[in-house]
Design goal:
heterodimer, A: about 325 residues, mainly alpha, MetI-like fold, flat, B: about 300 residues
């Protein structure tokens, strides 16, 4: 509107033709090109280093493409690289991470989605208070809670063991093998619980906000038809909210795969996740440093989140935008 | 619920007890309540309490020593270096990631081509873990074979950039990696905020003949205040938690030159067997989060209740 009047006053002119190569455009695209180079550089350096042999790496040109492409560093990183006396390579860490990841993602999303559903559609007295505590808890540095959780895991492990062992005389009398000591601290199941706990704030927020946006009429209609808490959850909410489940999965897969702190604290060397093992391989002080193997190992560890990232596109952005409170 | 219930309550012969009303939801919320009360509130209070006790290898709840741990903490060189590093890292990374994030968001907002590709490239480091980030930059900044050597080989013999070997600037080496990893996320946040601004604002400023940079500084930025505040809170909370990046990239070295509080806490608790100091240090971390969080919460939620 305003543009039109201005144009009319200054004489008959058509719309200003756009120049593709205006100086502004050159500056914008030039800057963006340089910026993209900066962001891509480390990935490029990692890839070329991992494809070189050690003699070539020692020549000292990190940007140079490999003269002789070799996949030996990748093989070595996967199956032979050493941490201390163990020389099984990263593969062990990879499978540990998978065994941590799968149950953690499923359990944390299951629990958080039900919590979010209860908060959105079945509010009870105090539910909002708990939710507020949960959200503010997301900002508490993990270091504050880490040690008491060690104690909680150890004690509950002992408690569960005591309960299980109470059945042992009976089981042995029946010819079965008795229960062994059950540990939460230092085991994968303990780490799964920790991931479930610390994934709770952001996931609950995500699901609560999503379920709140579902039209209330649907919920009421189902109530009139006699559906209860679980009926509505499984028959209406779950099928309607698959996109948000995908977002939650992306968030959890990248978050749990990339975790280092909990892996160090709550597992032991045999069950270290991939990130911890990677760090131990690269930063071990023994032996000659093999930078090409190190970079191959680093890329291998980064591969899972990168694949998720490039495959998921906009959903990843949606996930982290929702994950904004996680910090 | 209460409103819809009023019609029915008169008809109902017997009202179920309050506690059992909505029972399924309450049972379903037990994990959430457990997390909120036992872990977030309970564990935090537990740590704060034990920071006032003489806990060494094991927590010692009955040996109350008052502020002893805090006095020792603030008298320890390693802690002071950690705090100094955190301050430098925090300030630089706040300023840089907000500036870089904003400039990139503004550039992407100019209706450019390939926006999706460029955004994908800038954001991908955020999908990587701090360990991967730290190790990648450790290699690039390697003094013997990395960037420094490569530039020297090209012909610039006197070129010196070896943050990982130089205790004075090592924290800036960590900073470069941190910015690389996190600035894309800030950009995405700010871009979302920028897209929320009414197109008419731009039309109006164009009619008035205000140059674009002035529009950004005097109109767009003030309008984006809430987004900036959110970004600020998120970045600050992340900065205080910095741990794996330092562990992977420098292991705190050279010497103790790149130590950070989060690393200090973990080492005191699990390696130095000095739980008391670890608890005191982690309580200080909590305190610094509260300094950021409370004003934010007050602005964000306090205003609405009153208004």
């Amino acid at each position: 509107m305003v543009d039109a009047t201005v144009n009319a006053l200054s004489g008959p002119r058509g719309p200003k033709p756009k120049k593709a190569l205006s100086s502004t455009n050159i500056i914008i695209y030039g800057t963006l090109f340089v910026v993209c180079m900066y962001y891509l550089l480390p990935l490029y350096v990692m890839i070329v280093t991992s494809l070189k042999g050690m003699p070539e790496v020692r020549l000292g040109n990190i940007f140079g493409p490999p003269v002789e492409v070799t996949f030996q560093p990748w093989v070595k990183a996967w199956s032979e690289a050493c941490t201390g006396i163990n020389c099984e390579g990263l593969s062990r860490g990879f499978w540990n991470s998978v065994w941590i990841l799968v149950p953690s993602v499923i359990i944390s999303i299951a629990i958080a989605s039900v919590s979010g559903y209860a908060l959105a559609n079945w509010r009870f007295k105090g539910s909002e208070v708990f939710f507020t505590i949960l959200i503010f808890g997301a900002f508490i540095p993990y270091q504050v809670m880490i040690y008491p959780i060690v104690i909680l895991l150890r004690e509950s492990g002992e408690g569960i063991t005591a309960v299980l062992k109470a059945f042992n005389p009976m089981l042995e009398a029946m010819g079965f093998e008795g229960f062994k000591t059950f540990r939460l601290m230092g085991s994968l199941s303990g780490l799964v619980i920790v991931h479930t706990i610390f994934g709770m704030p952001i996931l609950t927020l995500l699901f609560r906000n999503y379920f709140t946006s579902v039209p209330e009429e649907l919920f009421k209609a189902a109530r009139v038809d006699g559906a209860g808490f679980w009926g509505i959850y499984f028959r209406i909410m779950l099928p309607m909210s698959l996109p948000i489940f995908v977002v939650a999965m992306i968030l959890q897969i990248t978050g749990i795969w990339n975790d280092f702190l909990f892996g160090v604290i709550y597992t032991k060397p045999e069950t270290y996740p991939m990130t911890v093992q990677l760090n131990n391989i690269v930063n071990s002080v023994q032996g000659v440093k093999e930078y090409n193997v190190n970079m191959a190992a680093t890329l291998l560890t980064g591969l899972v989140p990168l694949v998720i990232y490039f495959a998921s596109g906009k959903l990843f952005v949606r996930g982290i935008a929702a994950g904004a409170v996680k910090g | 619920m209460a409103v819809t219930d009023t019609g029915q309550t008169k008809v109902r012969a017997k009202r179920p007890s309050r506690l059992f009303k909505n029972m399924a939801a309450k049972i379903a919320a037990i994990p959430m309540i457990f997390t909120a009360l036992v872990v977030f509130v309970g564990c935090t209070l537990w740590t704060i309490y034990h920071s006032f006790t003489r806990s060494r290898l094991l927590p010692a709840p009955d040996k109350w020593v008052g502020l002893d741990n805090y006095e020792r903490l603030w008298g320890e060189n390693r802690w002071l270096i950690s705090i100094e590093n955190l301050a430098i890292y925090g300030l630089c990374s706040l300023v840089l990631s907000l500036t870089i994030g904003f400039v990139l968001a503004a550039l992407l907002d100019r209706k450019i081509r390939f926006e999706n590709t460029i955004r994908t490239i800038i954001l991908y480091p955020f999908a990587l873990s701090f360990v991967v980030t730290g190790l990648a930059w450790q290699w690039i900044l390697n003094p013997e074979l990395g960037l420094q050597n490569t530039v020297r080989n090209i012909g610039w013999e006197s070129f010196t950039f070896d943050p990982l070997n130089n205790a004075d600037i090592v924290i800036y080496g960590v900073l470069i990696a941190g910015i690389w990893q996190g600035s894309g996320f800030v950009m995405v946040l700010l871009l979302a905020g920028m897209r929320g601004i009414d197109e008419d604002v731009w039309k109006a400023s164009r009619v008035e003949g205000i140059p674009a940079w002035k529009t950004y500084i005097f109109i767009v930025i003030p309008m984006m205040r809430p987004v900036f505040v959110t970004a600020l809170v998120i970045i600050s909370a992340g900065i205080i938690k910095v741990y794996d990046l330092v562990v992977a990239q420098t292991s705190g070295g050279p010497g103790i030159a790149s130590e950070v509080p989060a690393k200090y806490v973990i080492e005191k608790m699990f390696q130095a067997q000095n739980l008391g100091l670890g608890f005191a240090a982690s309580t200080m971390m909590l305190l610094s989060v509260l300094v950021v969080l409370i004003p934010w919460a007050y602005l964000e939620f306090g205003g609405k209740k009153n208004g």
